[in-house]
Design brief:
Blueprint: H1 2-29, H2 36-43, H3 45-54, H4 60-66
Helix pairs in contact: 1-2, 1-3, 2-3
Amino acid sequence: MEGYIILAVIVAIVFLFLIAREFYAIAEIKGFPELKYLWISFLFPVFGYLLVIALPDRNQRKVEETAPLLKVVDVAPPPKQTSSHENDDLPDL
């Protein structure tokens, strides 16, 4: 029975490390290559995951490449449709 507990602990540690490594890869993609994001995600899973999720994207190159594609087009609003009832009062009952 003790062998199963030890095996379960080892599997849990390996699983946490693999997840932390993926969150570290996400932090690198966002422009934060420091190893502290790996260890924070490994030692404090929930807080580390939220920290990596909240990181801003430092890769401005992608934004600058797509900026010419984002043109502002001046579109005239549709004309107002006038109704035949100019009076806003309710009819008498």
